[in-house]
Design brief:
By secondary structure, the chain is an alpha+beta fold. The protein folds into 3 domains: 77 residues, Acyl-CoA dehydrogenase/oxidase, N-terminal domain (Butyryl-Coa Dehydrogenase, subunit A, domain 1), CATH 1.10.540; 103 residues, Butyryl-CoA Dehydrogenase, subunit A, domain 2; 114 residues, Butyryl-CoA Dehydrogenase, subunit A, domain 3 (Up-down Bundle). The protein is built from 8 helices and 9 strands. Strands 1, 2, 5, 6 and 7 form a 5-stranded antiparallel sheet that branches. The longest helix has 46 residues.
Length: 337
C-alpha cells in the first residue's frame, strides 16, 4: 500500500518545499538542492523518492503555468507534503506530441469540453491525491500545428472517472487509469496565464527530468555502497572478496558510472537554477543517471552472487585442470618404456 505516513514525514522534514518560492510557502531554494535531497531519499527507498519527485514536479508545473487562483487553492498542500500530486495526464510520452489524442474544445466563451483517456497516472490512486493535471490538444482538428492547454481537474469533477488503481511490485507506488468523457471545465481551471498563450509542454518537464535522474543516482550510489560492504565482509579462500581483481574491477566501474552521472546531473540542475534550460544537458544527465542506476544495480547483483558462486567456479576449474593433466603413474610408465 502507498506509504501515506512516510510521505507526510518527508513533507514534515521540508523536503517537498525545497524548490518552491517563499511566497508559495517554500524554502526559496532551487532545483539543485531538490536533487540533492531526492538522491538521498532514493538511496534508501526508490518508490518513496519517485512519489516525492512526481508530486514536486507537478507542483512546480502548477506554480509555473497556473493562474493565481489555482496556485492559492492547490499548491500549499503540495508544498507542505500534506497532499500528493500525480504526474500530468497525457495520452503519449511528452516527446511524441503529434500523437496526443485527448482533446479540449471550447464551448461558448468560458467553458471547455474534454474527451480522452490516460492508461496510467502515477500517484493518482493514493488517498492523498486531490486533483490531476491534464494536458490536452486544444487546437482544431484540421489545424496545421497542434496547440496545447493544461487543465487542473479535481477528483470530484463530473466526467472524470478513475479506475481501480494498481500498485508497483513493492506496493508503494500507485497507478490509476483515467477516462475523460465530456468533462466540462471552466476557463479558470486552465493551467496557463493569458487566454492567447500557447503552452509549450516541454517546459513543464525540465525539472522532472532531473528529479528522475536524482532517483536513479540514489539507486546507483546505494548499489555501490552495498557492493563495497559485501566485498569487504564476505570471506572466501582465506580473505575477503574485495582482494580479487574481478571484484575490484566491478566496483571501480560502478564508482566511475556514479561520479560521471552525478557530475552531469548537478551541472544540469545548476543550469536550470541559473535560468538556462539546456535540453542537451538535461538529456545527457537523465540518460547517464538512469543508465548508471541500471548498470550499478546489475553489477551489485553480480558482485554479491560472486561470493556464492566463486567457490563453485574455482572448484570446477581445478577439477578440469586435474582431469586434463597426465597422472604421475602414466608419466613413469612412458618414461620407463
Amino acid at each position: 500500500m502507498f506509504p501515506t505516513e512516510l510521505f507526510k514525514k518527508v513533507g514534515d522534514l521540508g523536503v517537498m518545499s525545497i524548490p518552491f518560492a517563499e511566497r508559495h510557502g517554500g524554502m526559496g531554494l532551487g532545483v539543485f538542492e531538490a536533487v540533492l535531497a531526492l538522491e538521498e531519499i532514493a538511496r534508501a527507498d526508490q518508490s518513496l523518492a519517485v512519489s516525492a519527485m512526481v508530486s514536486m514536479a507537478t507542483g512546480l508545473t502548477v506554480a509555473r503555468f497556473g493562474s493565481e487562483q489555482l496556485i492559492e487553492k492547490w499548491l500549499p498542500d503540495i508544498v507542505t507534503g500534506r497532499k500528493c500530486a500525480p504526474s500530468p495526464a497525457r495520452s503519449r510520452m511528452p516527446q511524441r506530441y503529434g500523437r496526443f489524442k485527448t482533446r479540449a474544445r471550447m464551448v461558448g466563451n468560458d467553458r471547455w469540453v474534454i474527451n480522452g483517456e490516460k492508461a496510467y497516472i502515477t500517484n493518482a490512486g493514493t488517498e492523498l491525491t486531490t486533483f490531476t493535471l491534464l494536458l490536452t490538444v486544444s487546437s482544431p482538428a484540421d489545424a496545421p500545428k497542434k496547440q496545447f492547454t493544461l487543465f487542473l481537474v479535481p477528483n470530484e469533477a463530473k466526467g472524470y472517472d478513475r479506475a481501480r488503481s494498481t500498485a508497483s511490485s513493492d506496493g508503494a507506488l500507485r497507478y490509476a487509469p483515467a477516462l475523460f468523457q465530456r468533462l466540462r471545465g471552466a476557463r479558470r481551471q486552465c493551467g496557463w496565464r493569458g487566454s492567447q498563450r500557447t503552452l509549450d509542454p516541454a517546459k513543464g518537464y525540465q525539472a522532472a527530468r532531473l528529479f528522475l535522474a536524482a532517483c536513479s543516482l540514489g539507486l546507483a550510489q546505494a548499489s555501490l555502497d552495498h557492493a563495497i560492504k559485501y566485498a569487504q565482509e564476505r570471506q572466501a579462500f582465506g580473505g575477503s572478496l574485495g582482494r580479487l581483481q574481478l571484484i575490484q574491477e566491478m566496483i571501480a566501474d560502478m564508482a566511475l558510472e556514479v561520479d560521471t552521472a552525478r557530475l552531469a546531473t548537478y551541472r544540469a540542475a545548476w543550469g536550470i537554477d541559473q535560468g538556462r534550460d539546456n535540453l542537451k544537458e538535461l538529456s545527457m544527465a537523465k540518460y547517464l543517471a538512469t543508465e548508471a542506476g541500471t548498470k550499478c544495480a546489475t553489477r551489485r547483483s553480480r558482485c554479491t552472487a560472486a561470493g556464492a558462486s566463486w567457490m563453485t567456479v574455482r572448484c570446477r576449474a581445478i577439477t578440469a585442470t586435474t582431469a586434463s593433466a597426465p597422472s604421475a603413474t602414466a608419466h613413469r610408465r612412458s618414461k620407463s618404456s
